[in-house]
Design goal:
The complex is a heterodimer of chains A (about 200) and B (about 70). Chain A has helices at about 15-20, 40-65, 70-100, 105-110, 125-135, 140-165, 165-195, and one strand spanning about 10-15. In chain A, helix 2 packs antiparallel against helix 3 (about 70-100). Chain A is about 65% helix and about 0% strand. The radius of gyration of chain B is 13 Å and the shape is globular. Chain B has helices spanning about 15-25, 40-45; strands at about 10-15, 30-35, 50, 70. Mean pLDDT of chain B is about 85; it is low at about 1-5. Chain B has a 3-stranded parallel sheet, with no helix packed on it. Chain B starts with 11 loop residues before the first strand and ends with a strand. Chain B has a domain at about 30-75: Oxidized Rhodanese, domain 1 (3-Layer(aba) Sandwich), CATH 3.40.250.10. In chain B, helix 2 (about 40-45) links the parallel strand 2 and strand 3. The chains are: A mainly alpha (about 200), B alpha/beta (about 70). The interface of A and B includes residues 7, 11, 13 and 152 of A. Strand 1 (about 10-15) of chain A pairs parallel with strand 1 (about 10-15) of chain B.
Chain lengths: ~200, ~70
């Protein structure tokens, strides 16, 4: 059917998902997308993405504190806190570059406080629940959760970059997905080293 | 669609080749289509994949950019 539909280069992946040994995302196609309306503008996107990054930062800080007697683990998660911080910084720079103005975060915080309230991190996971979950878990399990969270965030950002109508917002999502990929690579390296 | 299309085989990529292809490209440079059922997609899917179940493919072809390479699984 696809061959007859005028598609130029089409490939079927041998063995399907069972042959795929890479990372997988979970959830229905619209998972997390409810936060981002396809009609949203750049300012709204940046505000929401920023709030989710902030949630991720709180989570990683909580994990770093939890593993305070494991120097290597603490360093890993502290690095992730700084990665999220630089991600936030990048978001702001991207926004300013695209729109030529600074986002009004006071306004945005008020606007999204009902739905997010700084308590949801990337991948749509509530920070409090995630921190409760890791209490009796090992470092590797916490890293697995972090990887799952970042994979879902990457999945969401790629899909949003395709679905979003506003060109500037599209660019923001593309940038976000690129950065998530870097976080993922780093996390995977750390995870492999701890196995 | 011409009758001969029924006899053409779709080129394949191994999972490793697909992984390499995707790592070398920006997600916006290709289409990644999951043609399985929604429940299977929900359980696990390749990050960034667009779900278009086989049965809906005919009606949703417009969602696939014909100018970009397409990987289907």
């Amino acid at each position: 059917m696809l061959l007859g539909a005028g598609l130029k280069h089409i490939y079927s992946m041998e063995g399907g998902i069972r042959a795929w040994k890479g990372m997988v995302a979970h959830g229905v196609p619209e998972a997390g997308m409810a936060y981002f309306s396809p009609a949203a503008d750049a300012e709204e996107i940046v505000g929401l993405a920023w709030a989710l990054e902030e949630g991720s930062k709180f989570f990683y800080q909580g994990v770093a504190d939890h593993f305070s007697n494991d120097k290597e683990a603490q360093e890993m998660f502290t690095w992730l806190v700084s990665a999220e911080k630089s991600h936030e910084k990048h978001l702001l720079e991207t926004y300013e570059k695209l729109t030529g103005k600074k986002p009004d975060f006071v306004k945005l915080r008020t606007r999204f406080s009902d739905s997010l309230d700084g308590s949801v991190m990337e991948g749509g996971i509530p920070v409090k629940e995630a921190l409760t979950w890791i209490k009796d878990k090992k470092v590797s399990e916490s890293l697995e959760l972090a990887i799952a969270m970042e994979v879902n965030a990457f999945d969401l950002y790629v899909k949003m970059s395709r679905a979003i109508e506003d060109k500037q917002a599209k660019q923001i999502f593309e940038k976000l997905s690129e950065e998530e990929q870097v976080h993922l690579q780093k996390l995977s390296e750390l995870f492999d080293a701890r196995l | 669609m011409g009758v001969l299309n029924f006899f053409k085989s779709v080129p394949t990529m191994t999972a490793d080749e697909a992984k390499r292809f995707m790592s070398e490209k920006h997600p916006d440079e290709y289409n990644l289509v999951d043609v399985r059922q929604p429940g299977e997609y929900e359980r696990d899917h390749i990050p960034g994949a667009n779900l278009i179940p086989m049965a809906e493919l005919k009606d949703r072809l417009a969602e696939i950019d014909p100018e970009k390479p397409t990987i289907v699984y």
